[in-house]
Amino acid sequence: MIRVRVPATTANLGPGFDCMGMALDLWNTFTMEPWGAQGDVVVENSGEGAERLATDGTNLVAETTIALLGPKWEAMGHGLKFTCHAEVPCGSGLGSSSTAVVAGVTFAEALLGDIDRDRILRRSVQIEGHGDNVGPAIVGGLLLIMPHNGGVIVRSVLTEPLRVVVCVPDFDFPTSVARAALPEKVPHKDAVFNLGRAMFALQALRNGDDDLLAIALEDRIHQPYRLSHIPGAESVIAAAKETGAIGSCLSGAGPGIIAFARSGHDLIGQAMAEAYSQAGLQARSWILDTTTEGVTFERTQA
Ligand code: HSE
Question: Which of 41, 73, 168, 182 fits 256 for a cystine, CB–CB 3.0-4.6 Å?
Fold first, then answer.
């Protein structure tokens, strides 16, 4: 049996659209073992969103593993059983589907030979399309990532430890819809606005410079186009700041909203959920530390 743990992630961090993400200390755990006859697949789901996840080969973890196995899948002589225990809420902006892709790629690596973290990264980015969720889920910590020559370049950035609040509404806002909400072009002045904010946000995170972070989390190239689709989202960000958060922005493509704070996380989380509630949405808040650890894997006895 192979056991894989993959952390939640928060992508973009305001202005760093598609180029920056950070791992959070909330984990999905997956196992894979030989099972049944050639071609059989079963997936047992538990935890967050279990009732919504497929239990057959269309489950993202199983689908990813099998797609990468290629001819080996046809000649294994047995099928595969997967278990998925989720702590990361589905469709939240916390990289839940990235955890499934990273687990699937890691399982395929294990079946094909050695597990190589760089290859897991390359393959996961190919599947996911952009690497700001899968990257930190694999490497851990705060990660910069950019496309280059058909692959990606990544660099880890050491940060001061951070504790965040993420408030997730019961609202369906798939990444595909969130991306479709973006314009083809953005004004030049907005691009410049974001360049500056992204560079300063990075510096603020490295140095624990909260005054700078409060300003540098602003964004003009994705958030304004998305927030209007999520009822109450603007007032959730305002509520976080009014309750003492350093700053607040969409987590990834949303609909979850992340707030950075040094203290008062409980109150901030309550105020954010209350703001969603006033817009007619139920919401839950998580208080999460960052983690420098990325995907872990171990072969165990069944
Ligand atoms: N950078 C991505 C986006 C993260 O904002 O669309 C979500 O996968």
Answer: 168
